[in-house]
Write a structure and sequence with these properties.
Layout lengths: L6 H13 L2 E11 L2 E10 L5 E7 L8 E7 L2 H5 L7 H15 L2 E6 L8 H12 L4 H7 L10 H10 L4 E4 L3 H9 L4 E5 L10 H9 L6
Parallel strand pairs: 4-5, 4-6, 6-7
Antiparallel strand pairs: 1-2, 2-3, 3-5
Helix pairs in contact: 4-5
The structure holds guanosine-5'-triphosphate.
Length: 213
Amino acid sequence: MHFRLGMKEAVELKSAEDELVVRHVATANLPTKYGHFKIWAFENNRDGKEHVAIVAGDVQGKDDVLTRIHSECVTGDVFGSLKCDCGEQLERALAHINEVGEGIILYMRQEGRGIGLTNKVRAYSLQDQGMDTVEANNHLGFDDDLRDYSVAAEMLHILGVESIELLTNNPKKISGLRENGIKISERKPIRILANPFNSHYLNVKKNKSGHIL
Ligand SMILES: Nc1nc2c(ncn2[C@@H]2O[C@H](COP(=O)(O)OP(=O)(O)OP(=O)(O)O)[C@@H](O)[C@H]2O)c(=O)[nH]1
Protein backbone atom coordinates (compact mmCIF):
# COMPACT_ATOMS: atom_id res chain seq x y z
CA MET A 1 0.00 0.00 0.00
CA HIS A 2 1.36 3.46 -0.89
CA PHE A 3 0.63 6.70 0.92
CA ARG A 4 1.28 10.00 -0.68
CA LEU A 5 2.79 12.51 1.74
CA GLY A 6 1.59 16.09 1.77
CA MET A 7 4.25 18.82 1.54
CA LYS A 8 4.04 19.47 5.32
CA GLU A 9 4.53 15.77 6.27
CA ALA A 10 7.36 15.40 3.75
CA VAL A 11 9.19 18.41 5.22
CA GLU A 12 8.67 17.10 8.78
CA LEU A 13 9.96 13.63 7.84
CA LYS A 14 13.02 15.11 6.12
CA SER A 15 13.94 17.27 9.10
CA ALA A 16 13.57 14.27 11.49
CA GLU A 17 15.97 12.29 9.24
CA ASP A 18 18.36 15.23 9.06
CA GLU A 19 18.60 15.29 12.85
CA LEU A 20 19.87 11.70 13.00
CA VAL A 21 23.65 11.76 12.75
CA VAL A 22 24.13 8.03 12.54
CA ARG A 23 22.00 5.23 11.12
CA HIS A 24 22.07 1.49 11.63
CA VAL A 25 22.71 -0.23 8.29
CA ALA A 26 23.06 -3.99 8.94
CA THR A 27 23.72 -6.64 11.60
CA ALA A 28 25.41 -10.04 11.20
CA ASN A 29 26.94 -12.87 13.22
CA LEU A 30 30.65 -12.53 14.00
CA PRO A 31 32.42 -15.60 15.38
CA THR A 32 35.86 -14.56 16.68
CA LYS A 33 38.75 -16.14 18.58
CA TYR A 34 37.36 -14.33 21.66
CA GLY A 35 33.83 -15.73 21.27
CA HIS A 36 30.66 -15.27 19.28
CA PHE A 37 29.42 -11.72 18.75
CA LYS A 38 27.05 -9.79 16.52
CA ILE A 39 28.47 -6.97 14.46
CA TRP A 40 26.29 -3.92 13.87
CA ALA A 41 27.31 -1.57 11.04
CA PHE A 42 26.48 2.12 11.32
CA GLU A 43 26.99 5.00 8.95
CA ASN A 44 27.36 8.65 9.83
CA ASN A 45 24.93 10.64 7.68
CA ARG A 46 27.09 13.77 7.88
CA ASP A 47 30.61 12.59 7.05
CA GLY A 48 29.95 9.09 5.62
CA LYS A 49 32.23 7.45 8.23
CA GLU A 50 31.49 3.81 9.05
CA HIS A 51 31.50 2.72 12.71
CA VAL A 52 30.72 -0.70 14.16
CA ALA A 53 29.39 -2.17 17.37
CA ILE A 54 30.50 -5.63 18.49
CA VAL A 55 27.75 -6.98 20.72
CA ALA A 56 27.55 -10.04 22.97
CA GLY A 57 24.17 -11.20 24.27
CA ASP A 58 20.90 -9.28 24.26
CA VAL A 59 21.57 -5.74 25.47
CA GLN A 60 18.29 -4.07 24.49
CA GLY A 61 16.60 -2.45 27.49
CA LYS A 62 19.34 -3.63 29.88
CA ASP A 63 21.04 -1.73 32.68
CA ASP A 64 24.76 -1.75 33.53
CA VAL A 65 25.84 -3.21 30.19
CA LEU A 66 29.63 -3.69 30.11
CA THR A 67 30.78 -1.35 27.33
CA ARG A 68 34.01 -0.17 25.75
CA ILE A 69 34.19 2.80 23.40
CA HIS A 70 37.38 2.09 21.46
CA SER A 71 38.91 4.62 19.09
CA GLU A 72 40.50 3.19 15.97
CA CYS A 73 44.23 2.55 16.18
CA VAL A 74 45.40 0.73 13.06
CA THR A 75 48.99 0.53 14.33
CA GLY A 76 48.03 -0.97 17.71
CA ASP A 77 44.84 -2.89 16.87
CA VAL A 78 45.98 -4.41 13.55
CA PHE A 79 49.78 -4.44 13.57
CA GLY A 80 50.38 -5.07 17.28
CA SER A 81 52.36 -1.85 17.82
CA LEU A 82 54.00 -1.63 21.25
CA LYS A 83 54.05 2.22 21.15
CA CYS A 84 50.55 2.46 22.70
CA ASP A 85 48.17 0.39 24.82
CA CYS A 86 45.37 0.23 22.23
CA GLY A 87 45.67 -3.29 20.82
CA GLU A 88 45.98 -4.92 24.21
CA GLN A 89 43.03 -2.93 25.59
CA LEU A 90 40.86 -4.05 22.69
CA GLU A 91 41.82 -7.71 23.21
CA ARG A 92 41.19 -7.44 26.96
CA ALA A 93 37.79 -5.88 26.36
CA LEU A 94 36.73 -8.54 23.85
CA ALA A 95 37.81 -11.33 26.21
CA HIS A 96 36.18 -9.69 29.24
CA ILE A 97 32.85 -9.10 27.47
CA ASN A 98 32.87 -12.67 26.19
CA GLU A 99 33.45 -13.95 29.76
CA VAL A 100 30.54 -11.89 31.10
CA GLY A 101 28.40 -13.04 28.15
CA GLU A 102 26.89 -9.61 27.54
CA GLY A 103 28.39 -6.32 26.45
CA ILE A 104 29.30 -3.90 23.71
CA ILE A 105 32.42 -2.61 22.01
CA LEU A 106 31.91 0.45 19.86
CA TYR A 107 34.76 0.65 17.37
CA MET A 108 34.86 4.33 16.47
CA ARG A 109 36.73 5.55 13.39
CA GLN A 110 38.55 8.23 15.34
CA GLU A 111 42.08 7.22 14.38
CA GLY A 112 44.86 9.10 16.18
CA ARG A 113 42.46 10.69 18.69
CA GLY A 114 40.70 12.20 15.68
CA ILE A 115 43.62 13.48 13.56
CA GLY A 116 43.60 10.49 11.16
CA LEU A 117 46.19 7.86 10.33
CA THR A 118 48.50 9.93 8.14
CA ASN A 119 48.70 12.71 10.72
CA LYS A 120 49.29 10.12 13.45
CA VAL A 121 52.28 8.82 11.49
CA ARG A 122 53.47 12.45 11.15
CA ALA A 123 53.10 12.73 14.94
CA TYR A 124 55.01 9.46 15.42
CA SER A 125 57.80 10.86 13.26
CA LEU A 126 58.01 13.91 15.56
CA GLN A 127 58.00 11.52 18.55
CA ASP A 128 60.97 9.71 16.97
CA GLN A 129 62.71 13.10 17.18
CA GLY A 130 61.94 13.48 20.92
CA MET A 131 58.52 15.09 21.26
CA ASP A 132 55.86 13.47 23.41
CA THR A 133 52.40 12.53 22.11
CA VAL A 134 50.80 15.84 23.16
CA GLU A 135 53.67 18.04 21.92
CA ALA A 136 53.63 16.25 18.55
CA ASN A 137 49.89 16.87 18.07
CA ASN A 138 50.31 20.52 19.04
CA HIS A 139 53.32 20.94 16.75
CA LEU A 140 51.13 19.76 13.85
CA GLY A 141 48.50 22.36 14.80
CA PHE A 142 46.05 19.98 16.51
CA ASP A 143 44.74 19.84 20.05
CA ASP A 144 45.79 16.84 22.11
CA ASP A 145 42.43 15.13 21.57
CA LEU A 146 39.83 15.99 18.90
CA ARG A 147 37.35 13.27 19.81
CA ASP A 148 33.67 13.88 20.40
CA TYR A 149 31.35 11.21 21.79
CA SER A 150 28.00 12.28 20.31
CA VAL A 151 28.07 9.62 17.56
CA ALA A 152 29.01 6.89 20.06
CA ALA A 153 26.12 8.03 22.29
CA GLU A 154 23.70 7.85 19.38
CA MET A 155 24.87 4.30 18.59
CA LEU A 156 24.24 3.28 22.21
CA HIS A 157 20.76 4.81 22.00
CA ILE A 158 20.06 2.80 18.83
CA LEU A 159 21.31 -0.39 20.55
CA GLY A 160 18.73 0.41 23.24
CA VAL A 161 20.81 0.11 26.43
CA GLU A 162 19.47 1.80 29.55
CA SER A 163 22.81 2.29 31.29
CA ILE A 164 26.40 1.13 30.91
CA GLU A 165 29.48 0.19 32.88
CA LEU A 166 32.28 1.82 30.92
CA LEU A 167 35.66 0.13 30.50
CA THR A 168 38.01 3.09 30.34
CA ASN A 169 40.80 5.04 32.04
CA ASN A 170 39.79 8.25 30.28
CA PRO A 171 37.55 10.67 32.24
CA LYS A 172 36.81 12.63 29.01
CA LYS A 173 35.01 9.61 27.60
CA ILE A 174 32.78 9.54 30.69
CA SER A 175 31.91 13.25 30.55
CA GLY A 176 31.55 13.18 26.74
CA LEU A 177 29.02 10.34 26.88
CA ARG A 178 27.13 11.81 29.84
CA GLU A 179 26.83 15.15 28.03
CA ASN A 180 25.15 13.19 25.25
CA GLY A 181 22.58 11.53 27.50
CA ILE A 182 24.26 8.19 28.32
CA LYS A 183 23.84 6.87 31.87
CA ILE A 184 27.11 5.45 33.19
CA SER A 185 26.54 3.46 36.35
CA GLU A 186 30.21 2.67 36.90
CA ARG A 187 33.68 3.14 35.41
CA LYS A 188 35.67 -0.06 35.13
CA PRO A 189 39.43 0.46 34.78
CA ILE A 190 41.21 -1.32 31.95
CA ARG A 191 44.71 -2.19 33.15
CA ILE A 192 47.56 -3.00 30.80
CA LEU A 193 51.16 -3.73 31.74
CA ALA A 194 53.58 -1.11 30.41
CA ASN A 195 56.41 -2.15 28.08
CA PRO A 196 59.69 -0.30 27.30
CA PHE A 197 58.17 1.26 24.17
CA ASN A 198 54.95 2.65 25.68
CA SER A 199 55.90 3.52 29.28
CA HIS A 200 56.71 7.15 28.37
CA TYR A 201 53.47 7.42 26.36
CA LEU A 202 51.47 6.07 29.34
CA ASN A 203 53.16 8.57 31.69
CA VAL A 204 52.23 11.45 29.36
CA LYS A 205 48.63 10.16 29.19
CA LYS A 206 48.53 10.22 32.99
CA ASN A 207 50.35 13.52 33.59
CA LYS A 208 49.17 15.63 30.65
CA SER A 209 45.94 14.10 29.35
CA GLY A 210 44.30 13.23 32.68
CA HIS A 211 44.01 9.46 32.26
CA ILE A 212 43.54 7.48 35.48
CA LEU A 213 46.48 5.08 35.34
N1 LIG B 1 47.60 11.55 17.82
C1 LIG B 1 48.01 10.42 18.41
N2 LIG B 1 47.11 9.43 18.61
C2 LIG B 1 47.53 8.32 19.22
C3 LIG B 1 48.86 8.11 19.63
N3 LIG B 1 48.94 6.88 20.21
C4 LIG B 1 47.71 6.34 20.13
N4 LIG B 1 46.85 7.20 19.55
C5 LIG B 1 45.41 7.11 19.34
O1 LIG B 1 44.78 7.28 20.58
C6 LIG B 1 43.50 6.65 20.54
C7 LIG B 1 43.34 5.83 21.81
O2 LIG B 1 42.02 5.37 21.85
P1 LIG B 1 41.35 4.69 23.11
O3 LIG B 1 42.22 3.62 23.65
O4 LIG B 1 39.94 4.32 22.72
O5 LIG B 1 41.22 5.91 24.13
P2 LIG B 1 41.99 6.40 25.38
O6 LIG B 1 41.93 7.89 25.38
O7 LIG B 1 43.33 5.75 25.45
O8 LIG B 1 41.08 5.94 26.60
P3 LIG B 1 40.88 4.48 27.28
O9 LIG B 1 41.68 3.50 26.46
O10 LIG B 1 39.41 4.24 27.20
O11 LIG B 1 41.36 4.60 28.66
C8 LIG B 1 43.43 5.86 19.24
O12 LIG B 1 42.66 6.58 18.29
C9 LIG B 1 44.89 5.80 18.79
O13 LIG B 1 45.04 5.75 17.38
C10 LIG B 1 49.78 9.18 19.42
O14 LIG B 1 50.95 9.13 19.79
N5 LIG B 1 49.31 10.29 18.80
